[in-house]
Structures are given as structure tokens and as C-alpha cells.
Specification:
The protein is mainly β and 138 residues long. The protein has two helices and six strands; from the N terminus they run ββββαββα. The radius of gyration is 21 Å and the shape is globular.
Length: 138
């Protein structure tokens, strides 16, 4: 099974291109934090991602450098030769892309710190009460 799930920040604006046959392809890179990092080592991995067709259009239209993004896809490796040297590539082929922050919170994070707030989710908040177990339909 080849499945990749990532959550990270875009390191640059997504680059949308169109193949000669008219298919959209979008390339971007995500900075994904490592769970553990030794002192003096980098805290994040920079993962190259490629999205095709509608997913490519979605990413290019709604995401920009610095936005938090979730992706689901598969890992693909490749190689090519340039100037007699073999180069190896590893990319995530993105099947699904998700917003992982709100636009307002990403804009606010650059201008002012976000304050923690608590909301009252009781009956006064206009929400329906949770029914008792014997009232549930299943």
C-alpha cells in the first residue's frame, strides 16, 4: 500500500502549468515539522508535491506561500540524467488537498497574535441539547 498523509506549510506559491495536451498540473513544496529533532538538526522536511487536473486548479487558486495545508496522496520516485549524472526524485502525487487553517487566521498570524477565547456552548448558545441514550433512533 502506498499512501501518504501530510500536514505542513507551503514554502512557496503553487506553480500551475498546463501540459501540451491541456491537462493542468500544479507543483508545490510543503514544510512538514518532524516529531523529534536533535539539537542542531533541521526541524522540518521539505516535501515536493504534484497535483493534477481539478486538484491542481484548486491548489493554485486557494493556497499561497505560508498557508497550512493537508494533503493525501501517494509517493512516487523517479530518476533522470543531466550532464551524464543520474538524479533521483521523490514526490507526493496529491489526490486530495485540504485547508488546515482559516484564511483569516493565517492573515492574522502575520499581523497580530491570536488570543485564546472560550465560548459558551450551552443551551443559551442556541444549540439543541444532546438526547438521552434511550431517545436515540439506533
Amino acid at each position: 500500500m502506498n499512501k501518504v498523509i501530510l500536514l505542513g506549510r507551503l514554502t512557496r506559491d503553487p506553480e500551475l502549468r498546463t501540459t501540451p495536451s491541456g491537462v493542468n498540473v500544479c507543483s508545490f513544496s510543503l514544510a512538514v515539522n518532524r516529531r523529534f529533532a536533535k539539537e542542531g538538526q533541521q526541524n522540518a522536511d521539505f516535501i515536493n508535491c504534484v497535483a493534477w487536473r481539478n486538484t491542481a486548479e484548486f491548489v493554485a487558486k486557494y493556497f499561497a506561500k505560508g498557508r497550512m495545508m493537508g494533503v493525501v496522496g501517494s509517493l512516487q520516485t523517479g530518476r533522470y540524467e543531466k550532464d551524464g549524472q543520474t538524479h533521483y526524485t521523490t514526490d507526493v502525487l496529491v489526490d486530495e488537498a485540504y485547508f488546515a487553517d482559516s484564511k483569516s487566521s493565517s492573515d492574522a498570524s502575520t499581523s497580530a497574535p491570536i488570543q485564546n477565547t472560550t465560548a459558551d456552548f450551552g443551551a443559551d448558545a442556541g444549540l439543541m441539547p444532546i438526547p438521552a441514550d434511550d431517545d436515540l433512533p439506533f
